[in-house]
Design brief:
The longest helix has 26 residues. 24% of the residues are buried. The protein is mainly α and 197 residues long. It is built from 10 helices and no strands.
Length: 197
Amino acid sequence: MEQKNKYRAIKAALLISCVGFAPMALAGASAQMLAGSCVGCHGPDGNSVGPASPSISAMAKDNFVDIMKSYKTEGGRFSTIMGRISKGYDDKEIDLLADYFGAKKSMATKQKVDKKMAKKGAKIHKKSCKKCHADPKEDDIMLNGQPKAYLMNAMDDFSGLDVSKIASKDVKKMVKKLKKLKTADRKALANYYASQK
């Protein structure tokens, strides 16, 4: 009998605790809870501390939402992992994340930059990139202050795409220009963007 009463007490406690958490579960995840999944790669407050992931802090909401939705779309924005991750978020959650990271202050990644390479990269930017990336701070993913490894990986990934399979005219132009650049030129560009705060 005593054992039976113990089980009833445990069941009652579990039921009461579940009822207590029900309103939170129905309300959905908060922006901060959702953002917790992002910081492992994109850093605290969206400021990357790793070499291969971009910072996403202070990004314009429209750009953040467009990028996330493009990752979710078959044949959309190229990614190595974000295509899979983005499918786990609905539109409301993407909006919450956009607001959360958009409100964070952007801080350039701390890294060593080759000043000579950065100077060369500034010239390449002016000649080949400035028309579309007039203000690198305003790009969909800001180029300024990003980790050099991320910038190099992104340029390598984009330059390896098949132009005939790209829907966006702007991305096609960029891929064609990147294909023409030597590795040393891409390194110079990476140093230039990394040097910009």
